[in-house]
Write a structure and sequence with these properties.
Elements (H helix, E strand, L loop, with lengths): L1 E5 L5 E6 L4 E7 L3 E6 L5 E6 L7 E6 L5 E6 L7 E7 L5 E6 L14
Antiparallel strand pairs: 1-2, 2-3, 4-5, 5-6, 6-7, 8-9
Length: 111
């Protein structure tokens, strides 16, 4: 069983392995937040709001600790991200706060 935590400065993503009783650093960034496990538990997605080259969502694989940028959060209209999550197929969900006066619509057809 594994559990995830951030260091006090939010600069490192840590995983605790209960079987071994040890912590393992699996990712470093400037300011990690909103981390989410992938559905099968092979990777962890997280946001770095002050990353070099702009705010982004990253994924780190547990087997090799490779960190890759998977989505940019840079936008001239972006005010703040409320949260980041994953769908059942590990697609990224982003709640973005752009202001209070916009009107949006979503037309969805299920198969």
């Amino acid at each position: 069983m594994l559990r995830t935590a951030l260091t006090a400065d939010s600069a490192a993503l840590m995983v605790f392995n209960f079987a071994s009783g040890k912590w393992l650093k699996i990712a470093s960034a400037r300011s990690i937040s909103d981390f989410n496990w992938s559905r099968k538990g092979h990777a962890i997605y997280f946001e770095d709001a002050i990353a070099l080259n702009g705010p982004a969502v990253f994924r780190t694989r547990l087997r090799d600790r490779r960190v890759e940028r998977v989505a940019s959060l840079a936008s001239p209209r972006r005010l703040a991200s409320s949260w980041i999550g994953l769908t059942p197929d590990d697609s990224i969900l982003i709640s973005d706060q752009t202001g209070g006066s916009e009107v949006y619509a979503l037309d969805l057809e299920w198969p």
